[in-house]
């Protein structure tokens, strides 16, 4: 009976195996990608709508795999989170982003942080180390967290966020409006900025969506929280945001994610005007 069971299992094995093996192969490739220097950062400019100036840039991770080509972050960040690789990978990104920002006078640098990193204990230490290494002051660093970070209301996360803010680092709530308790989090957690998710900006032509965006902008103003609109692609969207007092805009209309040197060129060309 035992061997029969095994045969039955083996009968179903190949299909399951394919998924498991593909996933395992991705994990293995990811694991070796960091020491092989296959990761890179792009930077996307963030504009202050009132002044029209570039006030910051968000670091976005890129994986250039020799066998897979360029893999989008949505396809490897979740795997890196599950394997724990996001901890050294995130540390690398933080350091790399700060070093790039050191050559951009007065520009804020925004870095995405995973829940896994925040819960890993040594996170504040690695932030302090990246700032010291690059010479970038804490006031120029912004950490972007999603609501999933806040979902389990562990004391560790709250303590860590307070500690980071105590250093002068700003905390941004990413993809605002897509989670289960966006408003609740604003009440419980120290936040300096909210980034309205790009799904709202995309549908801003819809009356109800427009009302929501206007309300979030007003909410930010009342709470003293900077509001950034994500995924701004058209003049129409930009004009709506400006007319309604949104503080910052980010998206393809303002600039696509680019190499660090291109951001520097962009800043120079703007300074001439
Ligand atoms: P996110 O933090 O919400 O980043 C914004 C995403 O929107 C980026 O996708 C960016 O390229 C894209 N985007 C910017 N402007 C526009 C626009 O006008 N239209 C459209 N359609 N898209 C726009 P990307 O680079 O593929 O990153 C996807 C996600 O991967 C990020 O979403 C973030 O959650 C995650 N991610 C990226 N880099 C890192 C990282 O260093 N660490 C962690 N933990 N997550 C990262
Ligand atoms: Ca982000
Ligand atoms: Ca976002
Ligand atoms: Ca996102």
The SS-based structural class is alpha/beta
Helix tally equals 12
**β-strand amount:** 15-25%
Rg to the nearest angstrom? 21 Å
What is bound: which ligands?
A: ligand C2E, calcium ion
What strand order characterises the main sheet? 1-2-4-5-6-7-8-9
Work out the number of β strands: 9
How is the biggest beta sheet arranged? 8 strands, mixed, barrel
First-to-last CA distance: 82 Å
User: Which whole number gives the mean pLDDT?
Assistant: 91
Low-confidence stretches: none
SSE run: HEEEHHEHHEHHEHEHHEHEH
Overall geometry comes to globular
Helix content: 40-55%
Question: What features would you describe in this structure?
Answer:
The protein has helices at residues 2-33, 73-83, 86-101, 115-118, 123-134, 147-151, 155-166, 182-188, 198-202, 207-223, 235-243, 260-271, and strands at 39-48, 54-65, 69-71, 108-112, 141-145, 170-176, 193-196, 226-229, 248-249. Strand 2 (54-65) and strand 3 form a beta hairpin. The protein has 273 residues and is of the alpha/beta class. The protein has an 8-stranded mixed β-barrel, surrounded by 4 helices. One calcium ion (CA) binds next to loops.
Question: Which features would summarize this protein structure in a list?
Answer:
273 residues, eight-stranded mixed beta barrel, 12 helices, binds ligand C2E, binds calcium ion, Diguanylate cyclase (GGDEF)-like protein
Please write out the topology.
Blueprint (H helix, E strand, L loop, with lengths): L1 H32 L5 E10 L5 E12 L3 E3 L1 H11 L2 H16 L6 E5 L2 H4 L4 H12 L6 E5 L1 H5 L3 H12 L3 E7 L5 H7 L4 E4 L1 H5 L4 H17 L2 E4 L5 H9 L4 E2 L10 H12 L2
Parallel strand pairs: 2-4, 4-5, 5-6, 6-7, 7-8, 8-9
Antiparallel strand pairs: 1-2, 1-9, 2-3
Protein name: Diguanylate cyclase (GGDEF)-like protein
């Amino acid at each position: 009976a035992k061997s029969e069971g095994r045969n039955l299992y083996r009968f179903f094995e190949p299909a399951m195996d394919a998924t498991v093996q593909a996933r395992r192969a991705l994990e293995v490739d990811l694991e070796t990608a960091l020491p092989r220097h296959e990761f890179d950062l792009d930077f996307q400019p963030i504009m202050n709508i009132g002044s029209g100036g570039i006030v910051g840039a968000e670091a976005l991770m890129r994986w250039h795999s020799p066998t897979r080509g360029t893999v989008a972050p949505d396809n490897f960040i979740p795997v890196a989170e599950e394997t724990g690789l996001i901890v050294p990978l995130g540390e690398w990104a933080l350091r790399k982003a700060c070093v790039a920002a050191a050559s951009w006078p007065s520009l804020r640098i925004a870095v995405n942080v995973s829940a896994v990193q925040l819960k890993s204990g040594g996170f504040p230490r690695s932030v302090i180390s990246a700032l010291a290494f690059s010479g970038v002051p804490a006031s120029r660093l912004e950490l972007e967290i999603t609501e999933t970070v806040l979902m389990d209301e562990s004391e560790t996360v709250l303590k860590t966020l307070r500690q980071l803010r105590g250093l002068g680092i700003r905390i941004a709530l990413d993809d605002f409006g897509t989670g289960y308790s966006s408003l609740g989090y604003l009440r419980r957690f120290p936040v300096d900025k909210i980034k309205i998710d790009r799904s709202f900006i995309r549908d801003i032509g819809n009356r109800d969506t427009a009302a929501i965006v206007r309300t979030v902008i007003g909410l930010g103003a009342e709470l003293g929280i900077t509001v950034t609109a994500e995924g701004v692609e058209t003049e129409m969207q930009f004009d709506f945001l400006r007319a309604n007092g949104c503080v910052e805009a980010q998206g393809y209309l303002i600039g696509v994610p680019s190499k660090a040197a291109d951001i520097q060129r962009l800043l120079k060309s703007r300074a001439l005007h």
